[in-house]
């Protein structure tokens, strides 16, 4: 075989090929590095906070902030804008015009669709059925925007809001006149002041709660969730917050005009609701404490129906506190304008109902009386065999509460192996209770949710809320107080928000795959059931921030999502914020509707990056008000 010399043409050709290949590899590598660096630079240029132009009032170009006194102040706009454009946008027909929703008449400024007074008159007055939820038929639904009152101002920040509210936001003097002696509310110039008084606590709610605290443990973390029936302006719940007790206050929309609206304006949890013919929209074993202070509920009537409902929603070992008539009637009967015989008969009847529920009377002192629910039904079932009472409910799901009629029976507790065991499982004290695995998950009674999944959900929402903090600059500043999670699952979002000066109404849609509201209460949080094809039981302009994760995937084929968005607009305060999480297709559809609702919005990528199909839509309701009527001028 011939030897190849260094000057051989074949050798030169081989070296040339190798050099060309090396040059090609180096060129491709350089281009890859260059494009990678450009991409990294482009992503790093994204700012960490958002300035929403929608905070402008009256169409001004300057960014607006609001001072504590509610007056608008011009802020400095950011020099950069967060790129909210989705990387996977669905192209819409650009020729399609946005459907602009008109403003409703000012007479609808305080419209509550499912508690409308005119519609309510058509229903039976027996058991106050006419004050229960009666939602409008499809042809009655409004396709307009509920206007804020003229001169509406941003509410006071918490904790100042506990004591003050602007008169222009809730222009009702009735309670300040009717309840003047009881110190519910006082009108001082252009604002209301809430002295903390109540019908049964003339010395103030703080002193009244101290009296209760001498009878039962209020400060050691044992009691975390409470319910106040017939709450007035929710001073009881407002001052329980000082003891780390979260109270669900409710009252009907009745002659005491706007009492729940006042409560929410103060930054205190509340709902429109009533003890009527149906269960309250809460799960069984939800509350550690139930309270009635002259709430005018006939506890002794209808075979103890209403106390049986309190028993259903009260946790094993929970307390019921009653003050006012007929408690301690021997001393107070003259001031109540009732006969001693009548008051004695009422108290005896209440005592009998409580005994039939197997409750133990803890104490009666001054105008307070306290009962305690047993931690299990071991002894109760033994006495039932002897006395043939009380009647135990046969319902297979005590948590079912949406439009479910009340039953005059005892809701059975989960079985226990010993008379010393807490039915359903014992819970940690607050604040450990928030992050501990809830008993319903620990026992496996919530299908599909394990302890591992619970921990993963906690971690997930900590990351997501941290992301929200980066893109919504006012989140940790006290700008928001009343927050609603429209699809709360197991309360991960609300738990991640516990470090902020907020409270969260955790809503579990009745159409959810899992009924998780009981888990939420076991974590020391509060919430309610809801069908979002109907309006929520609250007044207009009562929430600062609304969170909707996966909600529209759940409801897109159930009802017209336009009406869900219109109700969100109704309950959202001017300049309030909404965070949607859903598929990009749904978010684009939502945005096309909200563009006609005077909202400003932008779609941004998922916190994990642009390749996640779930996106985030952040929207802000712009400031606008209705025009003053001749009556208001």
UniProtKB/TrEMBL annotation:
Transmembrane spans: 21-41
Gene3D superfamilies on file: Vaccinia Virus protein VP39 (3.40.50.150)
Enzyme Commission designation: 2.1.1.-
Keyword Methyltransferase: yes
Compartment(s) of residence: Endoplasmic reticulum membrane; Membrane
GO-annotated biological processes: methylation
Keywords: Glycoprotein, Membrane, Methyltransferase, Signal-anchor, Transferase, Transmembrane, Transmembrane helix
Cellular component per GO, a single term: endosome
InterPro entries for the chain: Put_SAM_MeTrfase, SAM-dependent_MTases_sf
Bilayer topology: Single-pass type II membrane protein
GO molecular function terms attached to this record: methyltransferase activity
PANTHER family per record: METHYLTRANSFERASE PMT18-RELATED, SAM-DEPENDENT METHYLTRANSFERASE
Family that this chain belongs to: Belongs to the methyltransferase superfamily.
Protein name: Methyltransferase
């Amino acid at each position: 075989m011939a030897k190849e010399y260094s000057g051989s043409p074949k050798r030169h050709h081989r070296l040339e090929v190798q050099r060309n290949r090396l040059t090609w590899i180096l060129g491709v590598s350089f281009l890859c590095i260059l494009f990678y660096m450009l991409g990294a630079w482009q992503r790093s240029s994204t700012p960490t906070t958002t300035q929403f132009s929608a905070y402008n009032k009256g169409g001004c170009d300057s960014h607006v902030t609001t001072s504590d006194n509610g007056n608008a102040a011009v802020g400095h706009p950011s020099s950069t804008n967060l790129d909210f454009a989705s990387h996977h946008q669905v192209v819409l027909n650009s020729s399609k015009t946005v459907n602009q929703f008109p403003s409703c008449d000012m007479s609808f400024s305080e419209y509550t669709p499912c508690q409308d007074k005119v519609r309510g008159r058509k229903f039976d007055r027996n058991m106050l059925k006419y004050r229960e939820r009666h939602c409008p038929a499809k042809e009655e639904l409004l396709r307009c925007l509920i206007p804020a009152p003229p001169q509406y101002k941003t509410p006071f920040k918490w904790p100042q809001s506990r004591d003050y509210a602007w008169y222009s936001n809730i222009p009702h003097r009735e309670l300040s006149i009717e309840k003047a002696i009881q110190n519910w509310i006082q009108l001082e110039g252009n604002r209301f002041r809430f002295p903390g008084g109540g019908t049964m606590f003339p010395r103030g709610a703080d002193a009244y709660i101290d009296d209760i605290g001498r009878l039962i443990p209020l400060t050691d973390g044992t009691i975390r969730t409470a319910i106040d029936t017939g709450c007035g302006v929710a001073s009881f719940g407002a001052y329980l917050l000082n003891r780390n007790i979260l109270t669900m206050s409710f009252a009907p929309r009745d002659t005491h005009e706007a009492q729940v609206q006042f409560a929410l304006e103060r930054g205190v949890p509340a709902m429109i609701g009533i003890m009527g013919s149906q269960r309250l929209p809460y799960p069984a074993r939800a509350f550690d404490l139930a309270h009635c202070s002259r709430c005018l509920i006939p506890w002794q009537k209808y075979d103890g129906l209403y106390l049986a409902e309190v028993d259903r929603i009260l946790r094993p070992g929970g307390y019921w506190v009653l003050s006012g008539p007929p408690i301690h009637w021997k001393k107070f009967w003259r001031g109540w304008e009732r006969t001693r015989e009548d008051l004695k008969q009422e108290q005896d009847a209440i005592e009998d109902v409580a005994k039939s529920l197997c409750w133990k009377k803890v104490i009666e002192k001054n105008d307070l009386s306290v009962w305690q629910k047993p931690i299990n039904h071991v002894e109760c079932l033994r006495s039932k065999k002897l006395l043939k009472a009380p009647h135990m409910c046969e319902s297979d799901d005590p948590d079912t509460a949406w439009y479910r009629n009340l039953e005059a029976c005892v809701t059975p507790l989960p079985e226990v192996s010993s008379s010393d065991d807490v039915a359903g499982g014992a819970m940690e004290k607050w604040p450990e209770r928030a992050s501990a695995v809830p008993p319903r998950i620990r026992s496996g009674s919530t299908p599909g949710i394990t302890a591992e999944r619970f921990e993963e959900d906690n971690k997930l929402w900590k990351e997501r809320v941290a992301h929200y903090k980066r893109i919504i600059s006012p989140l940790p500043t006290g700008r928001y107080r009343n927050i609603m999670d429209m699809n709360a699952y197991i309360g991960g979002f609300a738990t991640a928000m516990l470090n902020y000066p907020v409270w969260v109404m955790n809503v579990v849609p009745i159409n959810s795959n899992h009924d998780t509201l009981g888990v939420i209460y076991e974590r020391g949080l509060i919430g309610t059931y809801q069908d979002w094809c109907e309006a929520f039981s609250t007044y207009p302009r009562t929430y600062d921030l609304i969170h909707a994760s996966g909600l529209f995937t759940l409801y897109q084929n159930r009802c017209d999502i336009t009406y869900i968005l219109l109700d969100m607009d109704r309950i959202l305060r001017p300049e309030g914020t909404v965070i949607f999480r859903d598929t990009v297709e749904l978010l684009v559809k939502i945005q096309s509707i909200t563009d006609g609702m005077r909202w400003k919005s932008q779609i941004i990528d998922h916190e994990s990056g642009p390749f996640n199909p779930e996106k985030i839509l952040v929207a802000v309701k712009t400031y606008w008000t209705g025009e003053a009527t001749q009556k208001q001028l």
